[in-house]
């Protein structure tokens, strides 16, 4: 339990609050009642008054373990600099039960396409209207891939489609390019990266206000259903397997930008 997390009630937690008397002890039910989606640990401590630190820690752990609340990282303010050099060494928060359930439904609807066409695309965050390029001219796409050969193939495909392309292969390059301006209009990213967990990176990008709405398409060799679910639950805008068809990649990038 740290001051950088918030606790969110689950559907099970909401049901327990409505139940009379319910299954929890009075103390745990009181604790559950003060949890909302905006309170930090310090906020909750002030609401509860004088409660021993070890007792409070054990109570939160119990509620999380039993599924009454979930843990999520506090989103970074829009003006706060991205500091992945330290944050990426720790696992990112797990998706909520609702996010996992939605991702499973989306994945089940698209696995047939994967088998029939040899690639899989699932656009989940198509904008309601066309996005404008941040640079005012061409749309910029950032490629994050640990393999230089794949990076070159992705870059060539997108440059031929008239996109401005930046790329990063190593961990240090990834950290550096994410701090550059203007931000990319879209990101094409593998989840297998050197010295870096791609799913954790995806989660942390979605937790930062600068990147929470940037379309991110996962292009990877991982084809298992659980891999697709994990990426979509963490906020991926699309998922495609390697080897990919160039025209499918271009169509996917255009789709998440609201083009075509």
Structure commentary:
The chain has twelve helices and nine strands. It is α/β, with parallel strands linked by helices. It has two domains: 5-73; 93-256, 3-Layer(aba) Sandwich (Rossmann fold), CATH 3.40.50.2300. Strands 4-3-5-8-9 form a five-stranded parallel β-sheet, sandwiched between helices. It has a two-stranded antiparallel ribbon with strand order 1-2. A two-stranded antiparallel ribbon has the order 6-7. The longest helix is centred in the first third of the chain and has 13 residues, at 53-65. It is elongated and about 65 Å long. The model has no long low-confidence stretch (mean pLDDT 80).
Q: What is the strand content?
A: 5-15%
How many β strands by DSSP? 9
What is the helix content? Answer: 40-55%
Helix-strand pattern:
EHHHHEHHHEHEHEEEHEHEH
Spans of at least 5 consecutive residues with low confidence: none
Oligomer: single chain
Count of separate DSSP helical elements: 12
Q: What is the rounded distance between the termini?
A: 46 Å
* Largest β sheet strand count, sense and barrel closure: 5 strands, parallel
Q: What form results from the Cα inertia axes?
A: elongated
Strand order of the largest sheet: 4-3-5-8-9
Overall pLDDT score:
80
Quick take:
This protein is an alpha/beta fold and 260 residues long. It contains twelve helices and nine strands.
Which keywords apply here?
two-stranded antiparallel sheet, Rossmann fold, 14% strand, 260 residues, five-stranded parallel beta sheet, alpha/beta
């Amino acid at each position: 339990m740290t001051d950088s997390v918030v606790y969110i009630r689950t559907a099970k937690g909401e049901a327990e609050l409505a139940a009379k008397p319910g299954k929890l002890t009075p103390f745990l039910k009181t604790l559950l009642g003060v949890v909302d989606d905006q309170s930090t640990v310090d906020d909750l401590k002030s609401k509860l008054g004088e409660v021993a630190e070890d007792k409070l820690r054990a109570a939160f752990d119990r509620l999380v373990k039993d599924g009454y609340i979930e843990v999520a990282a506090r989103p970074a303010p829009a003006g706060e600099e991205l500091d992945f050099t330290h944050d990426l060494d720790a696992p990112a928060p797990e998706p909520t039960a609702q996010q996992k359930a939605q991702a499973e439904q989306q994945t089940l609807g698209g696995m047939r396409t994967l088998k029939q066409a040899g690639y899989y695309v699932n656009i989940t965050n198509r904008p309601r209207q066309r996005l404008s390029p941040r640079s005012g001219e061409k749309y910029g796409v950032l490629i994050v891939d640990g393999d230089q050969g794949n990076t070159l193939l992705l870059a060539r495909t997108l440059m031929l489609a008239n996109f401005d392309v930046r790329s990063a292969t190593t961990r240090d390059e990834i950290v550096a390019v994410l701090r550059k301006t203007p931000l990319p209009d879209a990101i094409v990213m593998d989840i297998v990266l050197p010295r870096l967990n791609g799913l954790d990176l995806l989660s942390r990008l979605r937790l930062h206000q600068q990147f929470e709405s940037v379309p991110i398409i996962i292009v990877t060799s991982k084809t298992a259903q659980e891999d697709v679910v994990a990426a979509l639950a963490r906020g991926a805008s699309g998922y495609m397997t390697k080897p990919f068809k160039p025209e499918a990649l271009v169509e996917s990038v255009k789709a998440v930008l609201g083009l075509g």
